[in-house]
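#struct-help
A.M.: can someone run this one for me? Single chain, 224 residues.
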Amino acid sequence: MFAGVAPRYDFLNHLLSGALDVSWRRRSAAALNLPRGARVLDLCCGTGDQALAVRKRGGNVIAGDFCLPMLALAERKYRRHESRRPRGLAADALGLPFGDRRFDAATVSFGLRNVADLEQALRELHRVLEPGARIAILEFAVPEAAWLRTPYLFYFRRVLPALGRMVSSRGSAYAYLPSSVLEFPQRADFVEVMHRTGFTAAQSRDLTGGTVCLYTGTAGGAGP
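D.P.: on it. Structure tokens below:
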């Protein structure tokens, strides 16, 4: 499915979010409070926009994804940059190809809801992070405010899949998107999952009226 949507992925991201995805990724990169030269893993990197946002904050980024067509598109973007170019790598979130304590920080943007085992993916992220390393995770959410929830759910369930079908030959992926968001643990529930998998000081912050959540936390000194 992800290989099929890859050619139109960036266009649809910008269209369906009203280009707000750019600012969300900047907020996520800023939340890491990176020292220059920090080693950062961007997992489920897609076409590389989050990795580039982290690069702009001074990080040395390894960008991992298990979808090779996405990685190929990301690589085209990386080639435009001479210094601190992110390095793409095929990687399974449930069994990362890195040693323990390899990274100083990590990001995941709109990818964790797609993994087969959420807690295993978070344990793997914890394993490859140095104690005290920061993590920033972006995920879609359902707004808590009643006045916004109803029109949001109508857009999410009806309008967004229809737009996806109009623009992409793999429009079914944009029917999968709402269902994956609605099934994903949100806010306090996801913070609890972060705590169970070894992250401390985990918290949730609503962005754009609660349509997106930015989750942050710190890798604890001991594994979960």
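A.M.: thanks! Residues 146-167 form the longest helix (22 residues).
D.P.: also worth noting: The two ends are 32 Å apart (CA to CA).
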